[in-house]
């Protein structure tokens, strides 16, 4: 009985530590996504959008499964929110379904661990 109780207790502790690890990765991945968004806004560089999408997702996914999950949730939420608001604003955001698909491809590229520099435009300052 003591062995069984000990095994159950160890399973609960290990499960809780796994959950805490996942949540920590998700929090750090969220920060990576916010940092990429901030850098994109700061750079204000034409043609760099896909690079920052890929970089944010790449950095977040490098944190582990929690970071990859956070990157997917944030990326999908951002694109879905943009699509929703475009329906109700006059003229939309100037984007469109094709641009949204390209953004999502860059997101997936980064999350899969591929080099985000594939999307880096020529002339973007090294700071980014």
TrEMBL record:
Region (Disordered): 89-128
Alphabetized Pfam families for the sequence: SAA
Gene Ontology cellular component terms for the protein in this record: high-density lipoprotein particle
Domain of life: Eukaryota
Keywords: Acute phase, HDL, Signal
Protein's GO biological process: acute-phase response
Start-end of Basic and acidic residues biased regions: 111-128
N-terminal signal peptide: 1-18
Classification via SMART domains: SAA
InterPro entries assigned to the protein according to its UniProt record, in alphabetical order: Serum_amyloid_A (IPR000096), Synovial_Prolif_Regulator (IPR052464)
PANTHER family: SERUM AMYLOID A, SERUM AMYLOID A PROTEIN
Cited function: Major acute phase reactant. Apolipoprotein of the HDL complex.
Family of this protein: Belongs to the SAA family.
Protein name: Serum amyloid A protein
Organism (species): Equus caballus (Horse)
């Amino acid at each position: 009985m003591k062995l069984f109780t000990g095994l159950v207790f160890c399973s609960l502790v290990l499960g809780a530590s796994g959950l805490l690890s996942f949540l920590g990765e998700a929090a750090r991945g969220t920060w990576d996504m916010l940092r990429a968004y901030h850098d994109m806004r700061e750079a204000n560089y034409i043609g760099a959008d896909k690079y920052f999408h890929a970089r944010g997702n790449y950095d977040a996914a490098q944190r582990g499964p929690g970071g990859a999950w956070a990157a997917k949730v944030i990326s999908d939420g951002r694109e879905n929110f943009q699509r929703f608001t475009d329906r109700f604003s006059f003229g939309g955001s100037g984007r469109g379904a094709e641009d949204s698909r390209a953004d999502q491809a860059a997101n997936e590229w980064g999350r899969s661990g591929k080099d985000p520099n594939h999307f880096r435009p020529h002339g973007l300052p090294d700071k980014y």
